[in-house]
Design brief:
The longest helix has 28 residues. The protein starts with a helix and ends with a helix. The protein is elongated. 73% of the residues lie in helices and 0% in strands. By secondary structure, it is mainly alpha-helical. The protein has a domain of 46 residues.
Length: 66
């Protein structure tokens, strides 16, 4: 399998991953309250588990509902 064959499928996933990561980091830095944990914990989780898992965990477990 050649990389150029799967590249059309990878590019949208990479863009979606970085967009979700960017929005998550923006949300963490602009809000002060969280359901569980604090800003430092969610920054570490989000950055360590960058590939969709960290941001999704934040929005499920950490984001405070307004």
């Amino acid at each position: 399998m050649n990389v150029t064959e799967i590249l059309p499928f990878l590019i949208p996933l990479i863009i979606a991953q970085f967009a979700l990561l960017g929005y998550t980091l923006y949300h963490i830095f602009t809000h002060n309250t969280y359901k569980r944990g604090n800003r430092t914990v969610w920054l570490i989780i989000t950055l360590v588990f960058m590939n969709f898992v960290g941001p999704i965990l934040y929005f499920i477990l950490g984001k405070e509902d307004n």
